[in-house]
Amino acid sequence: MSNEEEVWSLVEGKRDRFFALSDRIWETPELNYEEYRSSAEQVAMLKSQGFRVSVGLAGLPTAVMGEAGTQGPVIAILGEFDALPGLSQQAGIAEKRPVRDGANGHACGHNLLGSGSLMAATAVKDYLERHGLEGRIRYYGCPAEEGGSAKGFMVRAGVFDDVDIAISWHPAAFAGVNNPISLACNEILFRFTGRASHAASTPHLGRSALDAVELMNVGVNYLREHMPSSARVHYAVTDTGGSAPNVVQAKAAVRYLVRARDLPELQALVARVEKVAAGAALMTETSVEREVLSGDANLIANPPLEALMFQHLQRLGPPAFDAEDRAFAANIQSTLSAEDITASAARFGLKPKKGVALCDVIFPLGSGDGTLVGSTDVGTVSWVVPTVQMRGATYAIGTPGHSWQLVAQGKAPAAHKGMEHAAKVMASTAVDLILRPELIEAAKADHRERLAETPFVNPIPDGVQPPLPEKSRG
Ligand SMILES: [Zn+2]
Question: Contact 286/212 with Cβ under 8 angstroms?
Answer without folding.
Answer: yes
